[in-house]
Design goal:
The chain is of the alpha/beta class. It has eleven helices and 13 strands. Helices cover 36% and strands 30% of the residues. The chain binds adenosine-5'-triphosphate. One of its GO terms (cellular component) is plasma membrane.
Length: 322
Amino acid sequence: MIEVRDLAKHFRVHRRQPGLRAAFRALVHREHVTVHAVDQVSFTIPTGEVVGFLGPNGAGKTTTLKCLTGLLHPTVGSVRVLGHTPHRREPAFLRRISLVMGQRNALFWDLPAADAFEVNRAIYGLTGAAYRSALDELVTLLDLEPLLTKQVRVLSLGERMRCELAGALLHRPDVLFLDEPTLGLDVNGQAAVRAFLRDYNARYGATVLLTSHYMGDVTALARRVLVIDRGTLRFDGDLAALVEAHSPHRLIRVTLREAVPAQTWVGFGEVSAADGAVVTLVVPRAETAAVAARLLATLPVEDVAIEDPPVEDIIRAVFTHA
Ligand SMILES: Nc1ncnc2c1ncn2[C@@H]1O[C@H](COP(=O)(O)OP(=O)(O)OP(=O)(O)O)[C@@H](O)[C@H]1O
């Protein structure tokens, strides 16, 4: 269980104009500004839920995750994770959570992966049997056998990320914070990490809060999303509701058995793409079913698919309206 009430995190930063004169002036007169990285953010995540955390660059996602894991002390507000106050960094709390950051290495760079895992075993004080069974399971699920003897520094990005996940989950955390876990991975690497995370959540009922710039991660793993922009929470609810609220249109992709004149589409919807026999129409959401039925009744249709616009476009619309 994660409970966040009126969380704010402000940073006081030194501001200096560029140039030599400004550098000298700054020696005697330091100017400061306050950055409101997170402001009045409240949400609750029940045990076992997977929640996507979305927002543009600099929105406050990482800062929130750092407050939830105790790396940062909130300026205002309260945070409770598993009944603990994270910034106290109590061992009983740290043993039950994990933070995985796609852009940072947590494993020892110079050690073979197997030895790097041993370091984590010592940090978490895992007993031989618990460690062995967790490691065996992770090695199988993440296909790590061929990597165990290789130095972490020589692993490819995708291989390293799989090892990072294993290292972060050896102690079987109940709450998992993931900051861009598929950053830079190719399509196969992303799919492997997503499948693994879905499986981990199902197996252990772990609570997961996940940030990602790849909407595929979020749509594959989370039903609920939190949307943050400039430090403020803009949306908390079902991804489907977000899509519905911010996308008044749907896409109908029609595959025809034979070509039809371009003017045929007038009255059905706006043509957004036409590729031979496949035509994509943009249609008001409320009229989708009726338009699809008319298409089937009046045109030589082989196939009809109804889709929402890409979630990326919808999220962009949320930020634009915010
Ligand atoms: N230690 C710090 N000192 C000063 N400002 C900071 C610090 N950490 C973060 N910020 C600022 O707080 C804001 C939120 O940053 P944060 O890293 O939380 O965003 P984010 O949503 O994770 O962005 P991204 O998607 O780019 O990783 C930004 O304006 C950032 O510059």
